[in-house]
């Protein structure tokens, strides 16, 4: 398994860009005529063929849902970056379909998270970030302008002004446990989506992940499965 490209937490934004330019084809990164790929189950839930270039998406968790959103673009060959998530599960991300040889990690940018994210947006088209503080509308607007200019997409763990869509996990249950025996093998979750296309919101069930580590659509949960709050 190839290791992700890790950026030191004390690296200056200019150094981040310089280092990445040796690994990413910047000309290709700026050409985003089509939406970034989504796994079929997520595309069905969002009602979109892919993640929109120049848009930001807000999530309430950095776990399997974020990994699944990164997996679609990564499988298409795009570089991805993860900022401000020291506990990001790299092995689980690889199992979900994220290519680690095209993954940049900045685990602890501290108060410089916005500057680091803006610097990465110059060369990395798909970025995931957990802000370390309150996000001001003006900061979000400036970063959004850069994303639109470069054709990138932003996945934010936490609230984000004027997000294209907000995704949250609801009820969840695990498969695999019998009466006093067995192993947990997969999880079904209810994902709630509110977006510009569906302002009233919609929801659906996903197996997140299935026994193979993938994300697939699921039916509503059945009696007898263990509920995990």
User: Within the CATH hierarchy, at the fold level, what is the topology of the largest domain?
Assistant: Rossmann fold
What integer is the average pLDDT? 82
What is the top-level CATH class of the largest domain? Answer: Alpha Beta
SS strand fraction: 25-35%
Nearest-angstrom radius of gyration? 18 Å
Distance between the termini: 33 Å
Indicate how many domains the architecture comprises.
2
For this structure, what is the CATH homologous superfamily of the largest domain?
A: P-loop containing nucleotide triphosphate hydrolases
What is the second-level CATH architecture of the largest domain? Answer: 3-Layer(aba) Sandwich
Shape: globular
How many strands appear in the DSSP assignment? 13
Structure commentary:
With 229 residues, the chain is an alpha/beta fold. The protein has two domains: 5-157, Rossmann fold; 167-227, no CATH class. It contains seven helices and 13 strands. It has helices at 13-20, 26-29, 40-46, 64-75, 90-96, 113-120, 137-150, and strands at residues 5-6, 36-37, 50-51, 56-59, 80-83, 103-106, 126-129, 153-157, 165-177, 182-195, 202-207, 216-217, 226-227. Strands 1, 4, 5, 6, 7, 8, 9, 10, 11, 12 and 13 form an eleven-stranded mixed sheet that branches. Strands 2-3 form a two-stranded antiparallel ribbon. A hairpin with a 4-residue loop joins strand 9 (165-177) and strand 10. Helix 1 runs parallel beside helix 6 (113-120).
């Amino acid at each position: 398994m190839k290791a992700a490209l890790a950026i030191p937490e004390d690296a200056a934004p200019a150094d981040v860009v310089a280092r990445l330019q040796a690994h990413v084809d910047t000309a290709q990164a700026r050409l985003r005529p089509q939406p970034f790929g989504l796994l079929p189950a997520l595309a069905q839930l969002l009602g979109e063929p892919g993640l929109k270039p120049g848009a930001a998406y807000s999530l309430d968790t950095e776990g399997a849902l974020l990994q699944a959103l990164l997996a679609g673009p990564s499988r298409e060959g795009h570089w991805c970056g993860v900022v401000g998530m020291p506990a990001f599960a790299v092995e689980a991300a690889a199992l979900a379909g994220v290519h680690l040889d095209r993954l940049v990690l900045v685990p602890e940018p501290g108060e410089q998270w916005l500057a680091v994210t803006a610097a990465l947006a110059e060369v990395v088209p798909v970025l995931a970030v957990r802000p370390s503080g309150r996000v001001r509308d003006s900061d979000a607007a400036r970063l959004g302008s850069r994303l639109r200019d470069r054709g990138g997409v932003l996945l934010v763990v936490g609230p984000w002004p004027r997000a294209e869509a907000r995704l949250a996990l609801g009820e969840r249950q695990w498969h695999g446990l019998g009466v006093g025996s067995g192993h947990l093998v997969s999880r079904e979750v209810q994902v709630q989506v509110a977006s510009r296309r569906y302002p009233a919101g919609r929801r659906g069930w996903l197996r997140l992940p299935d026994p193979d580590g993938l994300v697939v659509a699921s039916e509503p949960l059945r009696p007898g499965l263990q509920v995990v709050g």
